[in-house]
Design a protein that fits this description.
This protein is α/β, with parallel strands linked by helices. Helices cover 50% and strands 11% of the residues. The chain contains 13 helices and 7 strands. Strands 2-1-3-4-5-6-7 form a 7-stranded mixed beta sheet. Helix 1 links the parallel strand 1 and strand 2.
């Protein structure tokens, strides 16, 4: 007798064919909230309301969450089982207190903020009203466009949650395509400072570098920097301080002095940043045995002298 044929595998259901599990609302249609809500929609949840103030935020909501009505924040909470509070850090405590004081928070409602700075303690007023608090911070820079939804795949989230809600927090992050990284409540400010130091300052450094290359006559600074910075970032992530190269790590005091002189002449606004990063790089290179002590003295002397000049500012008629 022939063995029965194996049943054909059932196709994966499309997102639009899955039953919606949670209604989702967004308070603050900045760059982050609509993208997260759109990602949750792909996982089978149903966005039902968004609050937006500026014309730009309204356009962003319309692009990423079409047909989702724009309403007042209190109405968002009235309609949604899961509410994303995606407002600037400094506005978050006041928003939470206001929503709790006006009775907008419903018992059993999942209230999620995306601030890197805060844990769940900032949600205590809403928690006392019966809300279930979660802090889910995507460690990614957002553009406010549909590309952000794709970038969430594999993105780490800094997650803080009460013990009884850890499984719920983990499930939401995974549904958005992310990877949960648990951050203790008291470690949130340090965690956020670390991300800002790496990501935000990187943008400033790259923008300055491109401006200087244009002044030097480079026609396509982005094309020149792309492979260099990509390799540097990859090496740094793989090897840390061992990836340090360049004149500071080598102790080339003369080259560093020439750099500072050129920056003073063509882009004086970049000097302070160059000196600060050079001193930090020298300290780390010296501590990890990359910079020879006998070369470090001359290098640090150049940086100290230029630092004094920068602090004093221009003299004579230029003052």
């Amino acid at each position: 007798m022939n063995a029965p044929a194996a049943p054909e595998p059932r196709p994966e259901p499309r997102p639009e064919d899955r039953p919606a599990r949670l209604t989702v609302g967004v308070v603050g249609a900045g760059r982050v909230g609509p993208a997260l809500a759109a990602s949750l929609q792909l996982a089978g949840h149903r966005p039902v309301a968004v609050s937006a103030v500026s014309d730009r935020s309204r356009r962003r909501a319309a692009e990423l969450l079409p047909d989702v009505p724009v309403v007042e924040p209190a109405r968002v909470l009235a309609l949604a089982d899961l509410v994303l509070l995606t407002v600037p850090d400094d506005a978050l405590p006041g928003l939470v207190e206001g929503l709790a004081d006006t009775g907008a928070v419903r018992p059993g409602q999942l209230l999620v903020h995306t601030s890197g700075r805060y844990g769940v303690r900032v949600l205590d007023p809403a928690r006392r009203a019966g809300a279930l608090p979660l802090a889910l911070h995507p460690a990614m820079t957002f553009t406010g466009t549909a590309v952000d939804v794709q970038r969430l795949a594999g993105c780490s989230f800094g997650v803080t949650a009460p013990e009884e809600l850890r499984l719920a927090a983990e499930a939401l992050v995974i549904e958005m395509g992310g990877e949960p990284e648990w951050i203790a409540e008291d470690a949130r400010p340090l965690y956020h400072a670390a991300l800002a130091l790496g990501a935000n300052h990187l943008v400033t450094l790259v923008a300055q570098s491109m401006e200087l290359l244009r002044k030097a006559g480079v026609g396509a600074p982005d094309r020149m920097l792309g492979p260099l910075l990509g390799a540097a970032l990859d090496n740094a992530l793989r090897s840390g301080d061992a990836a340090l190269t360049g004149p500071v790590a080598r102790g080339d005091a003369g080259t560093v002095a020439a750099h500072v002189a050129e920056l003073r002449k063509h882009a004086p606004g970049t000097v302070a940043g160059y000196l600060a990063m050079a001193r930090t790089t020298a300290d780390r290179a010296l501590a990890h045995g990359l910079l020879k002590p006998e070369l470090a003295e001359d290098l640090l002397g150049v940086l100290a002298a230029d630092s004094t000049t920068a602090a004093e500012g221009p003299r004579g008629d230029d003052r």
